[in-house]
Amino acid sequence: EKQLVESGGGLVQAGGSLRLSCVASGFTFDEYAIGWFRQAPGKEREGLSCISSRDGDRSYADSVKGRFTISRDNAKNTAYLTMNNLKPEDTAVYYCNVYTYWGQGTQVTVSS
User: Which of 86, 3, 79, 93 lies closest to 43 in space, CA to CA?
Assistant: First the structure.
């Protein structure tokens, strides 16, 4: 069974940092690109960042560029999203995505 499990969310003050993790199972992990998305209440799901399967090419949405860093450890079947200088508008449920599969999400709340 293919499964993605996110963790690492929480409550943090503005300017703080968090690192989200996404552990994949049931995949040949290094064959897939990985994406991070978020969805705030009342808003559409927003694509944040993507990392390619093997050569590590990365892309970022303008809203997080320079603050968030995507990475992966293929040996651990895990992807990460390191988030620095968090802002209240970063408050959302964060999801990882592989192909057509999604995790259950992890809540990030940034207080002002």
Answer: 93
The answer to whether 4 touches 102, Cβ cutoff 8 Å, is yes
How far is CA 34 from each of CA 41, 42, 57, 105, rounded to the nearest angstrom? Answer: 23, 25, 11, 14
Q: How far, in Å, CA of 40 to CA of 52, rounded?
A: 25
DSSP code, position 103: -
- CA distance to 8, 36, 107, per residue, from 111 (Å): 16, 22, 13
Q: Which residues of 55-72 are buried (b: 16+ CB within 10 A; e: fewer)?
A: eeeeebeeebeeebbbeb
Q: What angle do CA 72, 33, 50 make, to 5 degrees?
A: 75
pLDDT by 10-residue block (mean), the chain, 112 residues = 96 98 92 96 96 89 98 95 98 96 97 96
Strand partners, 46: 38
Strands 58-60 and 78-83: unpaired
